[in-house]
Amino acid sequence: MTLVSQAPAAVTAPSVAPVPTPPVRPARRARHPFLRPGALASFAVVLVVLGWALAPGLFTAADPLVGVPADKLSPPSAAHWFGTDNLGRDLYARTVHGTGLSLQAALLALGLGLVVGAVAGLVAGYLGGVVDAVLMRTTDVLLAIPGLLLSLAVVTALGFGTLKVAIAVGVAEVATFARVMRAEVLRVRTTTYVEAAVLAGARRPAVLARHVLPNAAAPILVLATVQLGVVMLAVSSLSFLGFGAVPPTPEWGSLVAEGRNYLSVAWWFTTLPGLVIAALVLAANRLGHLLEGREHR
Question: Does the pLDDT at position 90 exceed 80?
Answer without folding.
Answer: yes
